[in-house]
Write a structure and sequence with these properties.
The protein is mainly alpha-helical and 66 residues long. It has one domain: Lyase 2-enoyl-coa Hydratase, Chain  A, domain 2 (Orthogonal Bundle), CATH 1.10.12. The chain contains 4 helices and no strands. It is globular and about 40 Å long. The two termini are 22 Å apart. The relative contact order is 0.18.
Length: 66
């Protein structure tokens, strides 16, 4: 059930989140916060984000392409 929910999310955000989690122990908290801010900026500029907003406004499920 959880896997299906995760797979329905935006691929860009999934990939960036996985990378952040995989590298979390490598650097200081400050470095990780910078990495997270960069990942958020990438997500906000992505087509996936635009699709999420459109889907929300149109009250339909999002169709992410990555």
């Amino acid at each position: 059930m959880l896997a299906k929910e995760i797979l329905a999310l935006a691929p860009t955000a999934q990939s960036l989140s996985k990378g952040l989690i995989d590298r979390a122990e490598e650097a200081s908290l400050e470095t990780e916060l910078v990495r997270e801010a960069q990942a958020q900026a990438i997500c906000l500029a992505s087509e996936d984000h635009r699709e999420a907003i459109a889907a929300f406004m149109e009250r339909r499920p999002a169709r992410f392409d990555g």
